Amino acid sequence: MSTDRYVSPLSERYASKEMQYIFSPDMKFRTWRRLWIALAETEKELGLNITQEQIDELKAHADDINYDVAKAREKEVRHDVMSHVYAYGVQCPKAKGIIHLGATSCYVGDNTDIIVMTEALKLVRKKLLNVIAELAKFADANKNLPTLAFTHFQPAQPTTVGKRATLWMQEFMMDLEDLDYVLSTMKLLGSKGTTGTQASFLELFDGDQETIDKIDPMIAEKMGFKACYPVSGQTYSRKVDTRVLNILAGIAASAHKFSNDIRLLQHLKEVEEPFEKSQIGSSAMAYKRNPMRSERIASLSRFVMVDALNPAITSATQWFERTLDDSANKRLSVPEGFLAIDGILDLCLNVVDGLVVYPKVIEKRLRSELPFMATENIMMDAVKAGGDRQELHEKIRELSMVAARNVKAEGKENNLLELIAADPAFNMSLEDLEKTMDPAKYTGRASVQVDAFLKNVVNPVLEANKEVLGMTAEINV
Question: What does the alpha-carbon distance between residue 285 and residue 281 come to, in Å, rounded to a whole number?
């Protein structure tokens, strides 16, 4: 580890080795060489004077990048692509004359960017599915556990712990739908030349339009893609980067919402994120158990949501067939967006996998508010026993205000049931009233909704992707 220069916390603290490799120099320059091989093979197959011996030489050195040669050459020519063309040629003397034939720099640069983002999206997809799978287990296990629900963070009609988890899950499912769509639309740039007109190939293939039309589809197939973008300038449209980063921003928003709820629930002592045996919550207050992982999710998520503005602005400000004000921005915004979302999903997986639920605390809080929520049922029972609905409504309103004042102003327990039992207009004993206090009576169709959501929406997706499930996340800090 270098201690005398800045090192990104995304690589040192948050992102996995798998995601870091996708954005590594090895991945980049090995992909460049695969693209040069694909181009040479395509040109050979379409009739240019390229030998199998040259192709074999290129393949023999596809992975052993001579970085020292490329770096020394770049100091001379100030051009990264031509430096690597030169370095590849040093290793492949028989093939050096046909490396990069007819192509422009964006042939390797832009096609590699698409390939890298596609691979990164696949890893994000895998981790997102695992987060959804763990949330599904949590929702199913807690679908019948009543809990106080909140609107405006004020006590509202009860729900269940499992039903609340489906709200988090549904947002991640929406993100998965968006991701799958964008992933299905990813195409290569192909090889279209300096301004996207393929003019160089008119020279190479003596104006044979039919042959030139075959170049991009053949390159796409060799690189594992279904197609290339049908038209371009020198680069693929930077709108593609916008679409990809918007996917990451959507996942970040869902993760932020999830982490906020966990932080609030941990404050209420109802649900906690995992806490290691030797973990220190505070340097000053030894008893504290801070929701550090959830806070980190929120922190990184804000970064990703804001980072999505970068490719949007870059896309909007490109001039004609290309400008180079995208390059430095792309080198930062795209990798860092992916590294951050990778860390976020690992944290989400770790948190969901280790969530601790405290049913007794949940029940105590719910029962302290339940008398207010049960007033309509109580009133209906009193009407059935012969009471006047309008009179009872006014009485229960007044008694509720008294009970609320006792709780808020005097710090007493909620005594609404005792107040109602003492009022002869209701003709109900305290024992009768307490029978109405079963929390399960007030959660509506929460558990049924959990079952239906898992059965009809979530489980079919998990079943279709079961080969990628079963991940665990290692958290560095």
Answer: 8
Which ranges of 61-160 does DSSP label H, i.e. alpha helix?
67-77, 80-91, 105-141
What is the pLDDT at residue 223?
98
Residue 271 bridge partners (DSSP): 357
Angstrom CA distances, 68 to 64, 71, 90, 141, stand at 12, 5, 12, 56
| Joined tokens for residue 94 | 């028989």
Residue 315 has pLDDT above 80, yes or no: yes
The answer to whether residues 355 and 138 touch, using CB atoms and an 8 Å cutoff, is yes
Residues with Cβ within 8 Å of 151's Cβ and at least 6 positions away in sequence, in order, are none
Beta-strand pair 154-160/271-272? unpaired
To the nearest 10°, the Cα dihedral for 333, 335, 337, 341? Answer: 180
How far apart (Å, rounded) are the C-alpha atoms in residues 88 and 75? 16
- Kindly report the pTM of this predicted structure: 0.92
The model's confidence at residue 470, banded by pLDDT at 50, 70 and 90, is very high
Cα 231 to chain centroid distance, Å, stands at: 30
Residues designated catalytic: 152, 282
| Angle, helix 105-141 to helix 239-267, in steps of 10 degrees | 30
8 Å CB contact between 47 and 205: yes
